[in-house]
Amino acid sequence: MALSSARKAALAAVMATVVGALSFGASAMAAAPSPAASGPAVHRAAAPAPGSAAAASAHRQAPRVVTQLIGKGRVDGRRWSVSLEFHRTLPKGYTLPTLPGGDTVPGDALLCQRMYIGGVRIDHQGGPWSDCQPVTGAHDSQGSGSLGLWGLQDKGTTGTRLMVSTPGPEVAYGMLHLSDGTRVRANTVTLPGTDYRGWAAPIADGQTIDAVDEYDAQGKRLRHDTFWH
Questions:
Q1: How far is CA 91 from the centre of its chain?
Q2: Quick check: 144 and 197 in contact, CB under 8 A?
Q3: Among the residues of the chain, which ranges form H helices?
């Protein structure tokens, strides 16, 4: 059917309006994400600022008690071992010792030597905190410098014994010189996260110590003791 010019013009105007509406609708649909494509809303927490309390709690907190084995083996047919044990805070039930003048020994942490021969802890009769000393934090110089002979009988003077040292940072290893010509070397081991370190070596029943030496990493002798007979 033929259309008049007027009707053609009117129809053209209507078609232009419809096409414009469709074009706008298509643009709006493209701009808005469909529910199926977007899925549920996801909220992401902002990362804590470095150094903030939230950032610190996000990392694994340091353990309150740190233990490090510094020596083990067999002597006189029995197993022996020595560990250093560091308590970052004073344990429940522990009381700071008092000096002769009445002052309390300073310290907010505890450093212990846990020494075993044949499965029995040396000085266990003294309770759970025997062979422990108070220190201030993890880097107290008072926690270094001791050297001792330990055993289950006669205060370490007879029977199976252990020589234990907690040296300064310059000591790389210790050496026992026994009267039968035997030399026993023990390397220094550091307690992680602290300045505390130690080495330990066994002395069999009946053996006599001629000397105890300590050396740095270059083999220079730093200490020579001969009074441990």
A1: 17
A2: yes
A3: 5-31, 35-38, 53-58
| Cα distance between residue 29 and residue 37, in whole Å | 13
CB within 8 A of 7, min separation 6: which ones?
A: none
Report residue 156 as tokens: 């370490």
Q: What are phi and psi of 160, to 5 degrees?
A: -75, 130
Burial readout 74-99 (b: 16 or more C-beta within 10 A, e: otherwise): ebbeeebbbbbbbbbeeeeebeeeee
pTM confidence score: 0.72
Under 8 Å between Cβ of 136 and 89: no
Are 135 and 111 contacting, i.e. CB atoms less than 8 angstroms apart?
yes
The C-alpha atoms of residue 107 and residue 193 are separated, in whole angstroms, by: 18
**135 DSSP assignment:** E
What the block records as the tokens of 168 is 């300064």
Q: Which of 127, 125, 55 is nearest to 97 (CA)?
A: 127
8 has which bridge partners?
none
Per-position DSSP letters for 85-130, written without gaps between them: EEESSPPTT----B-TTSPBPP-SEEEEEEEEETTEETTGGG-TTT
CA-based angle 206:208:167, to the nearest 5? 125
Here the tokens at position 120 are: 């029995």
Band of residue 158 on the pLDDT scale cut at 50, 70, 90: confident
> Which residue, among 205, 229, 181, has the nearest Cα to 77 in the 3D structure?
205
Tell me what the pLDDT averaged over the chain comes to: 80
CA 194 to CA 199: how far, in whole Å? 15
